[in-house]
Amino acid sequence: MLLLKLSAQDLLTLDSRDRMVPHLAARWRYFRGADASESERSAWAESLVSLANDLVAAGRGNVEMIVECAATLDEAVCPGDPRLIDVVLVGRHPERHVPSVQLVELKRWSTVSRVERATADLLHVPGTKKEKKHPALQLGAYYEAFTSARGPFQGADFECGGFAYLHNATDDSVRTLIDVDAPTGSYARIYTNDRREQLLSDLRKNFAEEGAASEAERMLQSMGLRNTPLLDAMIWSRGADTVFTLRGRQKEVADQVLKTASKVLPDPRRPALVPDERRVIFLVTGGAGTGKSAIGLQIKAELEARGRTVNYASGSRAFNGALQEHVGYGDRQFRETFTYFSNFVTPPDPLLDVLICDEAHRLRDRSTNRFWKPEDWGTGPQVDELLAASRLTVFFLDEGQTVRPNDVGTVDLIKDAAERHDARIVRYKLREQFRCGGSDAYVRWVKALLDVTDEKPGKWRPDGLMHVEVADTPEELERIIRTEALAGASARMVAGYCWPWTKPLGDERRLEADVRIGKWHRPWNADSESFCQDEAPPSRIWSVHENGLGQIGCVYTAQGLEWDWCGVIMGEDMVRRNGRWVFRRGKERKTAEPGIKRVAEPGSFDPKVKAGSVDDEEFERLVRHAYHVLMTRASRATVLYSTDKETRDYLKELVGKLELHGLRPTWENLPVEARKPHLPRPGRGRGKGRRQKSAGSQAPDLRLF
User: Fold this and answer.
1) Smallest Cα–Cα separation from 677: which of 92, 214, 236?
2) Can you give the residue ranges of the AAA+ ATPase domain (predicted)?
3) CATH assignment of 230-429, among 3.10.129.10, 3.40.50.300, 3.40.50.720, 3.30.450.40
4) Do the beta carbons of residue 261 and residue 308 sit within 8 Å?
5) Coil, strand, or helix at residue 467?
6) Domain coordinates in residue numbering, the chain
7) 527: Cβ–Cβ under 8 A, 6 or more apart, which residues?
8) Is the overall model pTM greater than 0.90, yes or no?
9) Radius of gyration of the chain from Cα atoms?
10) 359-418, pLDDT tens digit by residue?
11) Does an H or E element contain 487, and which?
12) CB 69 within 8 A of CB 2
């Protein structure tokens, strides 16, 4: 956990725009479950700014300030739990050129006295009711945890120390803290206002002028707050048993699934005297970016390594297609373990040991396919077919991502099915957010913006984890996305379904530029199973193919995937009028060219949400959910554009003025450690023997949450 990560200079910029304290307060409420006190707020406003000013005065304004940070990677942070470090300063050591860290306790005390004459451990601070520990004792506990094997740098070579800063005090007023019998150690330094020059000197000794962003990035990556893109992590892991490193609640879920599998699945090597015939269903719920797919792919790899038969099913062609074509290219056995919900009308023979159902909110009433004969369609609930396919079933579900009227996957649906199958259901809820750069604030802001929750939308407050900006034109949005993609980042443009969608035309399979905004025209991603003119990729791999940059994706081809930068075009299906959202269905008109249609009345052109399919209330809900999905596809930056000027002005009002300094995570601004280009798909044959590491090679230490 952390509340804020910014350089000292950027923190002062944020504060000058009155954004720092409100942002910290919102993050505090999310993690702690209660409002930050006025005392806490005033401490942030005073002490953080004082420390940041001193860093700038020392010529170390580049040093990263990580505010209210947990000392270890897997530390539980609960209401009332005090184990958060006020500030972790991160930079590069000027002599050793390794990460340099200072743990800081900020105190606004102006005077203190001892509680007992014989010890300096307990202190009395005027104006407080409870006795206080000497700050060096707090720092000592943080230091031990931070530098342990569980700490953020996990045993790597780095410099670490700590100090308490009492910027309102003088040496005489807090003599108790600095007497000869006070605690000692590399973390026990005390600075007062009298010792400010010494503080500035020590900051220069501990931190170099450059390199802080790189070292902070290393720390965020090791803490799991910078996620490796799903497909890249899968490619790196081909050849290793372990796909991802899970922590906290995620690890708890995976461990419980594996433990249960060992109990309820028969082991041919050690037959049980009394077979355990229990059916078990795991139901894991959580929002976008909480690591559901990471858990699923991890347990798939581990169960397969134990000799279990496992399939990974999804309702998303884009997600499965990207895994099959990009990660499993050339490895037929690997590809065939990824399938779809509709593939279990007839139970497999023999039954699977485990079936993992990702994006279970996309379950259908029945399994159908327009290419099947009607007699081959499913006759009962699709969820029953999935439960009948294996002894152990794992569902990952987010009811907030239903975007089609025939998406029926809910918690209640699975609970009812479990009762019909006499199965024990085990439920878990994931809360920690690891998509969108780990920015819970951004995910909550998007939900409030779209009125998905009851929270009132407010101004976006930059947090150093996620960036948002609003483009004035579609040309500007495309320029930003193309610039980042060509520089090395992964990037795509997506849009609401607000234009007709033409199938590839003619023998050359030409893509029509359906998305038309003024003079700016671009095609949707190809509605095709094969490549089209100019090597435009089929829709199932549009998200990962290098030639997908020139086409516009929609919610159905973007759901479940992510990029560093995502440009989101809001169309006329959801516009702002008189302080509320207004939703519109569009009408199309034919053109002289066969098969091509244009917009007659702007609005939604999604054939799945036509007036005859869903009522107005359901239509509004599905449009909100679609934009929620589109706006949470980026891991570093989202660029918004609305075709409607009033809506665009509203977005600009909430997002605020574009920050052109270090808060904008362009490829050029990123530290080297953060520049991880999207990986090419592996060549044919690479998947053979994928559980054995090749001689002399080692998979890099990547973590996905």
Assistant:
1) 236
2) 278-432
3) 3.40.50.300
4) yes
5) strand
6) 2-223, 230-429, 436-674
7) 501, 502, 503, 504, 539
8) no
9) 28
10) 888 898 888 877 788 888 888 899 999 999 998 999 999 877 777 777 888 999 999 999
11) helix 474-487
12) yes
